[in-house]
Amino acid sequence: MTKVKVQYEYTMHCLSEILYEYMASAEGLSEWFADEVDERGDDFYFTWEGGGEERATLIRYKPESFVRFRWEEDEGTKYYFELVITIDEITDDLSLNITDFCEEDDREENKLYWENLIENLRLKLGAS
Fold first, then answer.
1. What pLDDT, on a 0 to 100 scale, did the predictor assign at position 106?
2. 13 in helix, strand or coil?
3. What's the rounded Cα separation, in Å, for the pair 100 and 60?
4. Residues 6+ apart with CB under 8 A from 89
5. What angle do CA 37, 29, 71 make, to 5 degrees?
6. CA distances, 51 to each of 48, 82, 92, 122 (Å)
7. Residue extents of the structural domains in the chain
8. Integer angstrom CA distances of residue 95 from 9, 17, 57
9. pLDDT at 50
10. pLDDT, tens digit (0-9, with 9 covering 90-100), for 92-106
11. Quick one: pLDDT at residue 66?
12. Phi-psi region of 41 (alpha: psi -120 to 50; beta: other; left: phi over 0)
């Protein structure tokens, strides 16, 4: 099963330090990404109501900048999902850039999935 790389950019109205906490900690991720998140070392266990549990490993990160996870099902592949904070040097606008991989036929569904997650995140941050 070959996946394609997809990238999204969302303008966020918040401080980068606060946004990073929502991206890199189990407590923050459980506020918007999944119903419950448990962190054990570099492994994060995501639980959704009615959807079971999935494990992702934190494979790269830079404090206050980005996190990259790999789902358990993607171990041994180049696939990952990454959340990157970008601040425009001229305007000082903050964006959250997402890189993910999905099957070609799932592009639209993947985009809607991330849009819904980001809407949840903005509500939690008060950054709508």
1. 96
2. coil
3. 14
4. none
5. 65
6. 5, 22, 38, 23
7. 4-125
8. 6, 13, 24
9. 81
10. 899 999 999 999 999
11. 97
12. left
Its pTM stands at: 0.92
- At residue 85, what are phi and psi to the nearest 5 degrees? -90, 125
Q: What pLDDT does residue 127 have?
A: 63
Burial class (CB in 10 A: 0-12, 13-18, 19+), 5: exposed
Interval 35-89: pLDDT, tens: 999 999 999 999 998 878 999 999 999 999 999 999 999 999 999 999 999 999 8
44 CB-side CA count, 13 A = 23
Residue 102 · residue 3 · CB < 8 Å: yes
In which residue are the tokens 């799932």 written?
Answer: 106
**4-125 maps to CATH 3.90.1570.30:** no
The amino acid sitting at 122 is R
Which whole-number Å values give the CA distances from 40 to 45, 66, 81, in the listed order? 8, 19, 19
